[in-house]
Amino acid sequence: MKESQAVDTTVDLGGISLRNPVLTASGTFGYGTEFAPFLDLRRIGGFVAKSLTLEPRVGNPPPRIAEAPSGMLNAISLENVGVEAFIGEKLPAIPEGVTVIASAFETDIDRYAEVCKRLTGVPRIAGLEINASCPHVKSGGIEFGQDPAVLGQLVRATRQATSLPLLVKLSPNVTHIAEMARVCEGEGASGISLINAVQALEVDPETRRPLLANGLGGLSGPAIRPIALRMVWQASQAVSIPICGIGGIISAADAVKFLLCGATAVQVGTSNYLQPSIAADVADGLVEYAKRHGIPRIRDLVGELEFPSR
Amino acid sequence: MAEAIWEVSSEGAVPIRAEAEVLRNVSEGPSSWRLVLRVPSWPGFRPGQFAMLSAGAQQAVRRTDPLLPRPMAVYRAEAGAEGFDVEILYKIAGRGTALRVAIVGPLGKAFPPPRSGERVIIVAGGTGIASVYELAARLAGAHPVEILFGARTASDLMALEDFEALKIPLQVATEDGSAGVRGLVTDLLETALEAPTPGSGRRVYVCGPTAMMRRCAEIASENEAPCIAALENAMACGFGVCLGCAAPLREGGYALVCRDGPAFDAALIDWERLP
Ligand SMILES: Cc1cc2nc3c(=O)[nH]c(=O)nc-3n(C[C@H](O)[C@H](O)[C@H](O)COP(=O)(O)O)c2cc1C
Ligand code: FES
User: Fold this and answer.
1) How far is the CA of A27 from the centre of ligand 1 (A)?
2) CATH code where residue A137 lies
3) Mind listing the pLDDT tens digit for each residue in B171-196?
4) Of A99, B104, B188, B216, which one's alpha carbon is 20 to 30 angstroms from that of A20?
């Protein structure tokens, strides 16, 4: 491949065609317009909007965030504007030509399906992501994504509720991520996204209390990246639907690692806070990497990890 | 006199994002520092606005610990020969110096300006002092204004000379009596509000530790004076996307300090639930 030749950056993420494989992660990119002063949204593959519930929700009491080594803890809970305000007010403000993936979370499966139904047929929405890291009230508060049977029911119900491409975002707080990935594939998910934040606890030794008012929180940022890479790799060995890799991405090199481990696309999360244009820089950096390595198509990198054979 | 001295809404001034050069980072006593950043462009700022700063951002390997940027009040900003100089006052327990600092700002809404002729009392403590300099500077000479500073001890006070140069009446209270009067700044506020105010009423602006702001809010309310408090919550993003900086409201629910504030009508805040 010649230096001057353009690199083909397009990818197909389970029926969502993306101009490049770099998306931004739900909950870290607001509803998109907040980033307008900092980057042209058309430079990235698209974004996953903040997870939506049927009704607007109020979140947890503060402190909701805390510092952690190379990461942060958050316990925001379900706070969001609700599905109607998203469709009526937030979507129309997003510039044309920007790929929008809507995210759904809820407290029971019927409500998840309702959110998906409501988002289906709305012109600007290219696909849905189901956030399975929500506590399931009926299972005593464990996450939907932590029990393969419950996860299966969730994917089946949401799959039936929508004709849109359906990504299922898995919780990392499980023993066998491959099993969870297989459940999603078996129930007809178009792809899977992983990982969500890792359940964590940080403590103030002076007050003997957790730093977060909620007690537990989710750890995100570079601290979780090796865990995320491991899980993406394990999932990619188990299923053939595309994977969207998430966790601590802060550079194009990090994005390449996820592609090598089997991710078709990636999402940039916490690092949007440090540097609001970072996702576009990661996308540009991927092109540079491809040129440097003489790779005509970014998607040729997917799954090319040379893992030692056992 | 102009009715509104500055606009409150955050719309209009589009924040910049830049890798700023550190022109100066000088110690201002045992725990405070004055940082002067050079940025290529700057849209101006209004009293009460802040910026998100992260150190050493433009290194080959991006520094990840500490990971999150820090919200810092914009202390002062002026056009220089080669760009704009943005000044920040901060307190920190020694985290190596950086040659470059990433800056995103100005962010947040400004303090609502006082009404014409209103007597203004500015109360500040800790890093809150950095949040009120621009407010004091814009009001100096245009409004009846006085400043009350509180600190544990004299060396905790920052930038006193800058404020003295504004030629505004300034009183200091320290808990150990090492500067000004011995006692709490909230006592100074009580005394100030006892004095009869002819004409257009008075208004309190406060920024500092939560306990201090809460007490000032109480005193102001007892004296039927409006009180504007600039909150200093922890933040991750600074522009309304992480939802991490929530401040509880008395009517229920939350406001985002970075987007809806940092300055709030103190009567709206549920001080009991604010950490
Ligand atoms: C403050 C915050 C809020 C989040 N909110 C959501 C959310 O609403 N829905 C969701 O699926 N993931 C949410 N996440 C998880 C991220 O999308 C992402 O999966 C996780 O942070 C790991 O990626 P990172 O290390 O790049 O941040 C949130 C993360 C953070 C830090
Ligand atoms: S700091 Fe992120 S929403 Fe306020």
Assistant:
1) 5
2) 3.20.20.70
3) 999 999 999 999 999 999 999 999 87
4) B104
- pLDDT tens column, A121-143: 999 999 999 999 877 777 777 89
Q: What pLDDT, in 10s, does the model give residues B196-246?
A: 777 778 999 999 999 999 999 999 999 999 999 999 999 999 999 999 999
For residue A224, give its domain range. Answer: 11-301
Question: Best of B258, B260, B264 to mutate for ligand 2, by most ligand atoms within 8 A of CB?
Answer: B258
Q: What total number of domains does chain A contain?
A: 1
**Closest ligand to the CA of B247:** 2
Q: Which domains does chain B have, with CATH numbers?
A: 16-107 (2.40.30.10), 119-230 (3.40.50.80)
Give the 3-state secondary structure of B197-214: CCCCCEEEEEECCHHHHH
Distance (Å, rounded) from C-alpha A161 to C-alpha A156?
Answer: 9
Alpha carbons B175 and B63: distance in angstroms, whole number: 38
Q: At what angle do helices A148-161 and A177-186 cross, to 10 degrees?
A: 30
The residue contributing the CA closest to ligand 1 atom 18 is: A196
Closest CA to A256 of A7, A52, A2, A22: A22
Give a yes or no: residue A6 inside a domain: no
User: How, if at all, do strands B254-256 and B100-107 pair?
Assistant: unpaired
Atom number in ligand 1 closest to CA B236: 1
When scoring B101, B242, B271, B273 by the number of chain A Cβ atoms within 10 A, the one with the most, hence best to mutate, is: B242
| A2 is a domain residue | no
Task: Confirm or reject contact between B201 and chain A (CB < 8 A).
Answer: no
Q: Report pTM.
A: 0.93
DSSP chain B: --S-SS--SS-SSPPEEEEEEEEEEEE-SSSEEEEEEEES------TT-EEEEEETTTSSS---SS-S-EEEE--EEEEETTEEEEEEEEE-S-----SEEEEEEEESBPPPPPPTT-EEEEEEETTHHHHHHHHHHHHTTTS-EEEEEEESSGGG---HHHHHTTT--EEEEETTSSSBEES-HHHHHHHHHHS---SS-EEEEEES-HHHHHHHHHHHHHTT--EEEE-----SSSSSSS--SEEEBTTSSEEEHHHH-BEEEGGGB-GGG--
> Per-residue pLDDT for B94 more than 60?
no
Quote the ligand 2 centre to A50 CA distance (angstroms).
Answer: 13
Residue A5 lies in a domain: no
B244 in contact with A at a CB cutoff of 8 Å? yes
Handedness of CA A144, A148, A154, A159 (dihedral sign): positive
Give the burial class of A123: count Cβ atoms within 10 A of its Cβ; 0-12 exposed, 13-18 middle, 19 or more buried. exposed
Pocket of ligand 1 (CB under 6 A): A 25-28, 50-51, 74, 76, 103, 131, 169, 196-197, 220-221, 224, 246-249, 268-270; B 242, 244
Look at phi and psi of residue A41 and say left if phi exceeds 0, alpha if psi is from -120 to 50, else beta: alpha
Q: Is residue A309 part of a domain?
A: no
Q: How does pLDDT run across B29-56, given as a tens digit for each residue? A: 778 889 999 999 999 999 999 999 987 6
